[in-house]
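Tutorial, part two.
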Amino acid sequence: MSESSSRQRLDTPRTSRRLFTVDPEAVGRFSESIARYLGTGRYLAWQTIIVIVWIALNLFAVSWQWDPYPFILLNLAFSTQAAYAAPLILLAQNRQENRDRVSLDEDRRRAEQTKADTEFLARELASLRLAVGEVATRDYLRRELEEIRELLESLQYDAGTKPKKDKAKKARTGTDPAIDPLTDEVSS
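Running the prediction step on this input gives:
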């Protein structure tokens, strides 16, 4: 048992023995900042100036020639730059793709919610239209009341009594503004 206690058991995971831990989010932010700078005109201008100065000094300043004509050291610098720039740009693109995916999912969810809300409101509007179609309007009530009044007048005329002209008749004609036209009552 002493030998198994010195080694870890197989059913437990091994603990990490890293010397240092790297925050992937910090590395991603750093790589995005470098990738953004590599894509600017300022970077291209500085790189062009450095290359022109490098070549000019190695061609014309004989005492300062550290990289003669085939410019092998300059090619090595470009190769090293490309070897680091490409993965940094790919890392920045992957992070942007992840952000785009999250944004797209959020937009899709919001669009589905908007569609559901719109369909609900359309159903509510349709039910309100049906309900309003069944509600008696003021014109409908006025017409029905007028027909009842005319029927009562004709019944009174047939019974031999002459109907009285009252304030309700004036209200229908609009001569007395103190009478409510809907209920034919005198308002105080």
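The chain has a mean pLDDT of 82. In part three we will examine how such features are distributed along the chain.
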